[in-house]
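Structure ticket #2291
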Amino acid sequence: MKAEDVLRFHQQLGAEYLAYAYPESSAVYPTGQRRTTCAAAAIHAELGRAPQSAVDLGSGAGDLCFLLASSGATVVGVDFADTMIAAAEKRLQALPAEIRARVTFSRADIFQNSIPSGSVDAVSALGVIETEPEDGRLFAEAKRMLKPGGVFAVSCRNRLFNVMSVNRHTRRELQGGGLDDLLAEAERLMARSDARKTEAALAELVRALAASSATNAAAPPVPAPAPISIGETRQHTPESLAKSAGANGFTGGTFIGVHPHPFPPALEALAPELYNRVAAAAEGFEREPLGLLWSSAFVAAFTKA
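Resolution: structure written out below.
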């Protein structure tokens, strides 16, 4: 995907994208908010503490910057789209003074920024790596900015989910011969499952579904914003991303699934609000192997070696 296409998407469709990624409608799963929460959690888990300093590459409307700042970090958000920087700065002004003092935004190419080398505890890049032709350049830039032992968090489109999605992505894997490798990785994930945690999470899912149905059955529907997409982007599996991280000077790995789909996504159009209540109830699996099988995306955090 060309950089100019990515920039054009965010410049021209920024407002529409934000409405879809951070919806008010219960008919749309709040992928943007959940991805932000999971990224902050992955950074904390991999680093072993809240970061004191951070850079968010491709910072968009600033949500991750605000969340990290609320935990005490000084954060710089870098984005090349004027519309995104303007939206982030407007939202920043509505936040408490202690958050405003910790967050700044920079309109710049994420690979041509002014962040000093070896200066921050954490670097994040959500929704970025899939638009790059390969992984190395992004890992190298994150490594440059990080202190020794610092953490890089990245979100990915989950190729492993192609096994579960039962759609054109599944057909493409079958036709291209990739399905066997995906199934083998899925089997390795399931072999690492904790039976008691999985049973407890399933029980919580059933309870949450029952409570959600009783509570929301009479709620009036809220129109969903129109779907929006940047186009065809690259996908990663947890294992392929971990291999790439290792090849680029990172160790460890904390993985959290984002946007669970316990049922094939085609069913969402039939009953969107119920479908997304199911997805919300399945968030208990985010850190379990099953969560990485049925999540359409994931967040991963790695440590600079």
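Closing remark: The chain has a mean pLDDT of 87.
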